[in-house]
Amino acid sequence: MIAALPMYDRPEAQAANDAFWQAIRARLGRGPETLDRTRGLQEVWCAGDLLLSQTCNLPWRLGLQGRAQLVGCPDYGLDDCPPGYYNSVLVARRDDPRDLVSLLAARVVINQGHSQSGYGALWALAAARGATPNITAESGGHIASARMVARGEVDLACIDAHSLRGIRAFDPDAAELRAVATTAASPATPYITGPREDPAGIRAAMRAALGDLPPATRATLGLRDVVEMPTAAILSLPTPPAR
């Protein structure tokens, strides 16, 4: 049986994620003793014995909905987002005065080609403005993308708003960034479970577990609730060109 919470598991948040899992496990009365940090994302997400993980809504649209079940979406209390939704912030260097259209035509970095917040949302925003982002690099993660912009290696990145909170809290390079634009809101990084599990029961355990955590742990997680989300809300989003 596998449990993993990889989406926002930066070093400064790992203790809070571990505490959250222990509270969930106590509420469920079962599950692995610790979160798995050894397996790759696809291996975790597609495991037949998956109990709990967190993915991105673009991989869900690209096929995970046939191999896992949707538990719900996190409510991070983000500005201009309904509960269970998130958005992304396009960032450039603080000393770069160019507007969004100019930056989209410059050097754009994405975190991964299967990321809604780092690629899908960027592509949709650009398309709405009649532009195509000039993607010149793929960093592997939001933190790396932000650092590449701050250091002048690229000109524009699209960072999910919850990740950007962590970057601003913990990364000195964040002082070199400025927000250029914000994308439309979409269902936030979904929690998923395996095909033989009870999503409603796991969602109830997660919500109860949040109430069991001390305030400092909840503040580190930035998590207000786990919201039931219709699959259609995720599947209705436009899918960007494959990379």
Describe the structure.
The protein is α/β, with parallel strands linked by helices and 243 residues long. It has two domains: 2-77 and 188-235; 88-184, Periplasmic binding protein-like II (D-Maltodextrin-Binding Protein, domain 2, 3-Layer(aba) Sandwich), CATH 3.40.190.10. Helix content is 36%, strand content 20%. The strands form three sheets. It has a five-stranded mixed sheet with strand order 1-2-11-3-12, with helices on one face. A five-stranded mixed sheet has the order 7-6-8-5-9. Strands 4-10 form a two-stranded antiparallel ribbon. α5 links the parallel β6 and β7. α1 (14-28) packs across α8 and α1 (14-28) packs across α9. It is globular and about 55 Å long. It starts with a strand and ends in an 8-residue tail after the last helix.
Please tag this protein with its features.
D-Maltodextrin-Binding Protein, domain 2; 243 residues; globular; single chain; alpha/beta; 5-stranded mixed β-sheet; 36% helix; 2 domains; 12 strands
Secondary structure topology:
Blueprint: E1 2-3, H1 14-28, H2 41-45, E2 50-54, H3 57-61, E3 69-75, E4 85-86, E5 88-93, H4 100-104, E6 108-110, H5 116-128, E7 135-138, H6 142-150, E8 156-160, H7 161-170, E9 177-182, E10 186-187, E11 191-193, H8 199-212, H9 215-221, E12 225-227, H10 231-235
Parallel strand pairs: 1-2, 6-7, 6-8
Antiparallel strand pairs: 2-11, 3-11, 3-12, 4-10, 5-8, 5-9
